């Protein structure tokens, strides 16, 4: 009986190690995103509504790569991650939400400061978070906490052409490409995952990836 | 006519230039569909009817939008309303609106745009909120659609003739006819401002610092805009608006419009030596809006005056509305609007004085709630009351669903 006990106790202990500990080995993913030109340039508002409700000045072209979110999904990443202690910001400036696409970890609070010298409003009815933060003027802000993974579409009811997206994700392994389309995800536990690239109007693409225990795996994505 | 209008609409939007995504014009199509379920007395619904036979309470409405950006500064905006409840004789041109906008400049502190074509109402601020996805209620303020008993194509012979037809403006079919001459064509009366129909002309619109401005020249008048490109008299209407944003959240505006409103079919019935262009509609209006947090309050008032050939006194009308709404965090919105028309007293020819049409009051209230992105549900109530003996002021209860796509 004693002999039997001696061999299976260490075996059980070894088997339980991956369940109790985060794998120490963590690799990285890096790659380049290619993005097709936007299909539809902005159409001006149908009604001219004056300085109170319409922006003056030429609107800047959207930063295309800045509107892409690259994130990982995988069963081994499914756990509770603490959200950032400080709120992230989505600024209302020049009658636009800046940034227009903001990826956040579930549980994150986002602040919406108004830097324009007229009123803005922030609301959403899509993506599992229904809220209206009212109207507020320059220098004021409102906050909202995003708890559920979803694509939350943000609007301003005063300026119908203001629209932004908050991509609420369930793990912190996400990033946005730089101006050249390069991206990197570091500190990823080794393993097999799905890497997704998402853009609000150009859709989503996913590829299977394997993150090594050390070093960087290269991957290419296109939208 | 219908075939020609469809041809213009389709050729502009589809037939010219390469497809979206390639160099050339950019096209954007969208739409707004509205379903109304009304619990109402027919008389109450008649008080909302428009000239075409449709109304904001029509059971089914579809508005199609086609916008084409030819160049960064040049865009064409087109919209077509489809409403099965419209009268069969209503011309398609009354449903089709289109105008070009050229942006002369657009800088951080000033901008100027030139617009030409069939233009939105060049007065006040309600026009952009007439779409059901922007209107927190279902009906329109009285000043923007209610038909008085005065006509553009028939003349009251005198004040007594006009007074005898009070309350007959809202429906052409119920009109028994003035004795002062004119066309036999069935037309509803003249509203102070007829927002559902746009007008042909040109406009300069823009802003400078905290001011916004509009200057427009159109073929018709606010009360009788021209649905088609032809004019019904030789005169033009001049309209202007100046708005000021004094503090964040507030907007103050002044509007005025003046133009001849009588139809050329009345020329033989004018007093000797006088012409159509001698008789004007003149409207002076003020608008104000203030919002803070979840609360918004807005209102407009207008003093309208028609000159009628056989009535010594000008026919004056005071029109107004006051509207407020409050939005909860869930985006459930409560809205309330009161609108009214007050008609001036004129000499009745028998030693007395009477209002030249029946005063009208309208109360509207409602809730709106976005069910999904682009889908809005409303529950609205409206009561309109004419100041005449026996007027009960029946109510309308409406359940509305609008979907923008």
How would you describe what is shown here?
The complex is a heterodimer of chains A (223) and B (405). Chain A has 2 domains: 21-79 and 173-223, Carboxypeptidase-like, regulatory domain (Immunoglobulin-like); 81-170, Cupredoxins -  blue copper proteins (Immunoglobulin-like). Chain A contains 2 helices and 17 strands. Chain A has helices at residues 2-20, 50-53; strands spanning 26-34, 69-73, 88-89, 91-93, 96-98, 101-105, 108-113, 120-126, 131-136, 141-146, 150-155, 163-169, 174-175, 182-189, 191-199, 203-211, 216-222. In chain A, the strands form 5 sheets. In chain A, strands 6-12-11-8-9 form a 5-stranded mixed beta sheet, with no helix packed on it. Chain A has a 4-stranded antiparallel beta sheet with strand order 13-2-15-16, with no helix packed on it. By secondary structure, chain B is mainly beta. Helix content of chain B is 6%, strand content 46%. Chain B has helices spanning 2-15, 42-46, 159-164, and strands at 26-40, 60-71, 74-82, 96-107, 110-119, 199-208, 211-218, 237-244, 250-260, 280-292, 295-306, 315-327, 333-343, 345-347, 353-355, 360-372, 375-386, 395-404. Chain B has a 16-stranded antiparallel barrel with strand order 1-2-3-4-5-6-7-8-9-10-11-12-13-16-17-18. Chain B has a two-stranded antiparallel sheet with strand order 14-15. Chain B is globular, with a radius of gyration of 21 Å. Chain A binds chain B through residues 39-41, 43-44, 46-52, 54, 56-58, 117-119, 123, 125-126, 130-138, 153, and chain B through 20-21, 26, 28, 65, 67, 69, 72, 75, 77, 79, 101, 103, 106-111, 113, 115, 120, 127-128, 205-207, 209-212, 243, 245, 248-249, 251, 291-294, 296, 327-331, 370, 372-373.
């Amino acid at each position: 009986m004693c002999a039997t006990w001696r061999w299976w106790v260490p075996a059980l202990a070894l088997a339980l190690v991956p369940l109790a500990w985060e794998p120490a080995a963590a690799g990285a993913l890096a790659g380049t995103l290619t993005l097709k030109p936007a299909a539809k340039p902005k159409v001006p508002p149908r009604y001219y509504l004056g300085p109170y409700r319409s922006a003056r000045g030429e609107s800047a072209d959207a930063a295309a790569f800045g509107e892409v979110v690259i994130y990982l999904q995988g069963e081994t990443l499914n756990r509770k991650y603490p959200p950032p202690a400080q709120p992230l910001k989505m600024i209302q400036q020049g009658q636009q939400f800046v940034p227009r696409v903001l990826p956040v970890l579930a549980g994150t609070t986002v602040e919406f400061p108004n830097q324009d010298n007229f009123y803005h409003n922030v609301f959403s009815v899509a993506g599992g978070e229904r809220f209206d933060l009212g109207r507020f003027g320059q220098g004021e802000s409102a906050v909202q906490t995003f708890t559920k993974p979803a694509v939350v579409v943000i609007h301003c009811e005063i300026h119908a052409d203001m629209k932004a997206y908050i991509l609420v994700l369930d793990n912190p392994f996400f990033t946005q490409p730089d101006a050249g389309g390069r991206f990197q995800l570091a500190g990823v536990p080794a393993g097999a995952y799905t890497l997704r690239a998402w853009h609000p109007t150009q859709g989503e693409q996913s590829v299977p990836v394997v993150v090594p225990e050390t070093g960087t795996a290269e991957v290419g994505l296109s939208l | 006519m219908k075939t020609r209008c469809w041809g213009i609409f389709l050729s502009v939007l589809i037939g010219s230039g390469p497809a979206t995504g390639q160099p050339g014009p950019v096209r954007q199509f969208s739409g707004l569909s509205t379903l109304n379920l009304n619990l109402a007395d027919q008389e109450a619904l008649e008080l909302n009817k428009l000239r075409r036979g449709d109304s904001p309470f029509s059971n089914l409405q579809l508005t199609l939008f086609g916008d084409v950006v030819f160049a960064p500064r040049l865009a064409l905006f087109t919209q077509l309303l489809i409403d099965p409840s419209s009268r069969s004789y209503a011309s398609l041109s009354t449903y089709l609106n289109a105008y070009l906008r050229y942006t002369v400049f657009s800088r951080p502190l000033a901008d100027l745009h030139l617009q030409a074509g069939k233009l939105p109402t060049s007065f006040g601020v309600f026009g952009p909120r007439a779409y059901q996805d922007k209107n927190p209620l279902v009906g329109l303020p009285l000043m923007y659609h209610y038909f008085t008993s005065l006509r553009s194509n028939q003349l009251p012979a005198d004040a007594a003739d006009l007074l005898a037809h009070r309350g007959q403006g809202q429906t052409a079919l119920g009109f028994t006819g003035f004795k002062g001459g004119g066309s036999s064509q069935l037309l509803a009366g003249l509203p102070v401002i007829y927002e559902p129909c746009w007008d042909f002309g040109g406009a300069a619109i823009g802003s400078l610092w905290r001011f916004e401005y509009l200057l427009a020249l159109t073929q018709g008048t606010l009360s009788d805009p021209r649905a088609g490109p032809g004019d019904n008299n030789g005169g033009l209407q001049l309209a202007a608006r100046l708005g000021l944003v004094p503090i964040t959240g507030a907007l103050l505006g002044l509007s005025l419009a003046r133009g001849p409103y009588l139809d050329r079919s009345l020329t033989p019935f004018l007093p000797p030596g006088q012409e159509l262009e001698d008789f004007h509609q003149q409207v002076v209006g003020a608008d104000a809006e203030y919002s803070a947090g979840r609360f918004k309050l807005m209102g407009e008032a207008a003093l309208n005056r028609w000159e009628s050939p056989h009535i010594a006194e000008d026919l004056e009308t005071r029109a107004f509305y006051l509207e407020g709404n409050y939005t909860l965090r869930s985006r459930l919105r409560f809205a309330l609007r009161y609108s009214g028309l007050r008609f001036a007293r004129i000499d009745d020819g028998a030693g007395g004085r009477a209002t030249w049409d029946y005063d009208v009051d309208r109360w509207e209230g409602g809730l709106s709630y976005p069910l999904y992105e682009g889908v809005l549900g409303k529950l609205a109530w409206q009561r309109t009351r004419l100041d005449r003996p026996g007027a009960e002021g029946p109510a309308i209860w409406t359940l509305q669903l609008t979907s923008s796509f």
